[in-house]
Amino acid sequence: MRTLxxxxxxxxxxxxxxHLELWIAAKGDFPFPDVRSFLTAAAEVATPPGPPIPFxxxxxxAMVRAYLARFGGVVVPRPCDWPTFVLNHDDTDWDAVxxxxxxxxxxxxxxxx
Length: 113
Hints:
Layout: E1 2-6, E2 18-26, H1 35-42, E3 53-54, H2 61-72, E4 83-90, E5 93-100, E6 103-111
Antiparallel strand pairs: 1-2, 2-6, 3-4, 4-5, 5-6
């Protein structure tokens, strides 16, 4: 699993105090055969937090798409309906796990501004 962390100085405007953490892992028999095993490792959550929503229904999906490409090298197709498991959602914190073809991605964006 790759873990990437970006502080406010990686973004276009450091005064926004944005932070981004990405966990990216390949799906496979071991160690991540399913989303539950990835959630346990990347988010310390033993079970999915309810039914997933499609990617395009998630909070700020345009920003998520752009940041996944820019910071994680992950291209999100258009249209996209990847199952999205929301861990936390408010205006200053978006934490979700995406089940992409061949990948699991935990995306945690937050701001302290």
